[in-house]
Amino acid sequence: MSLDNEAEEIVVVVSPGAPILPKLSIDRDAGRVALLINKNLIEYDCVFNIFSYALCPLYLFYSPSKYLDPILVERSFRSAILPSFVDDLLLLERIKDYVKIHVKYLLYKKLYELVQRFDYIDLFKLTSYRYINEDTQRIRYLDNIIKKILELDIANQYIEEEVISRLLSRYRNYPIEFFVRAKVEWGKFASSITRLSSLVERSINPVINILREIKISRDLRDPLPKPETFIILYEGSILRGAGVPGKVLKERSRGLVEKFIGSLSSARIKIYSESGKEYRVVEKRYLNISSVKWFFSSPVIEILRRVGIELFTDPLDRLSNDYYYSIKLREIGLYTAKTLFIDPWNYLLIREYVDGVNIAEYLSRSDTDVNDVKNVCGLLGDQISLLHSRDICLGDTNPRNFIIVSQNSPTKIFYIDLEQTSLCENDAGKAWDLSMFI
After folding, report:
1. Which of 173, 193, 216, 314 has the highest count of CB atoms within 10 angstroms of its CB?
2. With contact defined as beta carbons under 8 Å apart, do 101 and 158 qualify?
3. pLDDT (tens digit per residue) in 386-409
4. CA 77 to chain centroid
């Protein structure tokens, strides 16, 4: 049946005495669809996802107010939505000072996942569209319950550093963090399995078979925005996927100390088109945990750790450092490449391309003036001294990580690789910076 969406076309009736399976009734003259759903099924799906959370959104959005139980709604959000949100916060933890998240992200992410999983059910897409585009009393009610759970002021639409820190402090423990990382790794292989799961559910899940009978007349072909658009960064944007499209000009792999550690990341220079213009960008991928698992048993690394030198092996930590300290160094007057996109789920960062010559190459040129060498080295020394005075250690001061973009006065040095940068209060980390450069 096709419905006119401008009418109140969907009604969900919840009753303890309803049949075990949802019952669909159609009033063609009124252009209305009614779903009669057993209250126990609603509770089981909202709290335990027994029907893949397919029934719960219908209850949340389309049931009359007299059927809406605020306690059940809160339980549903706490059990089905909050854990996934905390997972995402753990991925963004190291850059939380530069992140704010719209309150709609939590529920919209769940709705969007339903659309992706069951793309043949019009009702999920309609519900997602309405949630982010309409301002109804029901939508405000749902948002306010989310704010209550987050202990967020009702007038505030964004979740920022204070709330993020409180949530992480409350829900953090080692098993959660471990499983978040495991889910990130698993997610890289899960898309095809999710599609297969959807086909299986389509065949055996009676709720899915009922919902697919409801056809919506409104044109729903326009793509929905990804949930990540509701995560606002101080600099750049969240990008979840395959990276930016474009032609690869150059590719390289590198490591922290080549002769000891080997390759921990790879970078590609790409031509990226936007609004009819072309830009050079650097697409940097951080190798995942399994690729550097041998790192933890390296005797060299163990020795460095024992003397107080912190080196980062986890790809998420290194991505976060690159993003965080590129902003932090700029705030104290140094030059860094601006970040355009980050994808913490796939360990990817895309930044501006800095067109210049690295210091290692600059110093090796036969035509380089001795006075210029003194000026560049003196300037870099002053800058590293400034960082050390603020207890910031770069961790990887390989001369190739510093780009000279202007050899004229004033000389500018760009810091392009900050994945090992951290706060350091001991002299060992600062001494390591100096020894690495030499």
Report:
1. 216
2. yes
3. 999 999 999 989 899 999 987 566
4. 20
The b/e string for 69-102 (b: 16+ C-beta within 10 A; e otherwise) is beebbeebbeebbbeebbbbbbbbbbbbebbbbb
- Nearest Cα to Cα of residue 50 among 40, 60, 64, 62: 40
Residues 218 and 248 in one domain: no
| Contact indicator for 282, 353 with CB cutoff of 8 Å | yes
Query: Of the residues 188, 207, 229, which one is the last residue of a structural domain?
Result: 229
Q: Long-range contacts for 187-191 (Cβ within 8 Å, ≥24 apart)? A: 187/345, 188/346
Q: How far, in Å, CA of 13 to CA of 18, rounded? A: 9
Question: Do the Cβ atoms of 108 and 227 come closer than 8 Å?
Answer: yes
Q: Among 81, 125, 79, 126, which Cα is nearest to 105's?
A: 81
Residues 241 and 373 reside in one and the same domain = yes
Query: What's the helix, strand, coil split of the chain in %, to 5?
Result: 50, 20, 30
Phi-psi region of 255 (alpha: psi -120 to 50; beta: other; left: phi over 0): beta
Provide the total of helices (H) and of strands (E) in the chain, helices listed first.
16, 20
Q: What are 252-304's pLDDT values in tens digits? A: 554 444 433 445 778 888 887 777 788 889 999 987 655 555 555 556 666 66
Task: Give Cβ neighbours of residue 418 (< 8 Å, ≥ 6 apart).
Answer: 321, 322, 325, 326, 329, 336, 394
Q: Residues 200, 65: contact at Cβ < 8 Å?
A: no
Assess whether 162 and 274 both reside in one domain. Answer: no
Residues facing residue 119 across a β-bridge: none
Q: Is residue 409 part of a domain?
A: yes
The number of folded domains in the chain is 2
Closest CA to 121 of 10, 241, 6, 46: 10
pLDDT tens readout for residues 144-159: 999 999 999 999 999 9
Q: Cα separation of 321 and 342, whole Å?
A: 12
Residues 168 and 140 placed together within one structural domain of the fold: yes
Order of strands across the sheet that contains 231-233: 158-159, 99-102, 231-233
Do 305 and 218 lie in a common domain? no
The boundaries of the domain holding residue 96 are 59-229
DSSP string, 70-129: HHHHHHHIIIIIHHHHHHHHHHHGGGGGGEEEETTHHHHHHHHHHHHH-TT-HHHHHHHH
Residue 201: both structure tokens together? 């559910």
**End residue of a domain, out of 185, 209, 229:** 229
Phi, psi of 34 (to 5 degrees): -120, 135
Both 225 and 243 in one domain: the answer is no
pLDDT over 50 (residue 359): yes
